[in-house]
Specification:
With 200 residues, this protein is mainly alpha-helical. The protein has helices spanning 3-29, 40-67, 70-75, 79-91, 94-110, 120-150, 154-183, 196-199.
Length: 200
């Protein structure tokens, strides 16, 4: 297994542990999670998480509407052409999976932060949607694995597209929720400017 994929799996596992640990802590303590992350660190992770959210919105829909549908076209040229395409796709997979893993990790980590620009409820909603997207990932990976081992099949293609649709919708809803949270930010205080008479 490639090193980058092990790193990807580690980020997903850490994100899941932080999320499940947060749920368990909430159930036991019945109050907000302790803020391990605060101040500037929270702002940096939130900004990075927001950027990764919108990046992954574009990537997931590109895969759904374009890349994965090429499987059908390539299968018409025979298994050798299809396998050549899937091999090329797999070779370029780090640019897809590593930002996705980083996004999930960032928002699970933010559950343990002191809220600054997002409400606690908003961060939980975003993190939950991303965990839903993670839950769909094994179905998509399983379909890709089946086609890699046994060639193209309509059933595997349907499984891939259905699982990836869940992932795309979850990431998109999370990004839109983050946008709503930003819109709900209180307006910055308006500083009163001294009039010319007062300045004199």
């Amino acid at each position: 297994m490639p090193t980058y994929f092990l790193f990807f799996l580690a980020t997903l596992a850490t994100a899941l542990l932080l999320y499940v640990g947060g749920l368990a802590t909430l159930a036991v303590r019945r109050r907000a999670l302790p803020g391990w992350l605060g101040g500037k660190a929270t702002n940096v992770v939130q900004a990075g998480g927001l950027a990764l959210l919108w990046m992954n919105v574009g990537v997931t829909w590109l895969l759904f509407f374009n890349v994965y549908r090429i499987h059908v076209d390539m299968s018409a040229f025979g298994n050798a052409a299809f396998q050549g395409f899937t091999t090329g796709y797999t070779r370029r997979l780090p640019i897809v999976v590593l930002p996705y893993g980083a996004m999930c990790l960032a928002w699970s980590l933010l559950l343990w932060s002191v809220p600054t620009r997002f409400s606690r409820g908003g961060m939980w909603a975003i993190a939950t949607l991303l965990i839903v997207s993670v839950a769909s990932t094994p179905w998509a990976a399983g379909a890709l694995g089946l086609m890699h081992d046994h060639g193209y099949s309509d059933d595997a293609q349907f499984q891939l597209q259905a699982a990836h649709l869940v992932r795309s919708l979850s990431v998109t809803l999370a990004a839109l929720w983050a946008l709503v949270e930003m819109w709900r930010l209180p307006a910055p205080p308006v500083r009163a400017q001294a009039s010319p008479q007062m300045a004199a």
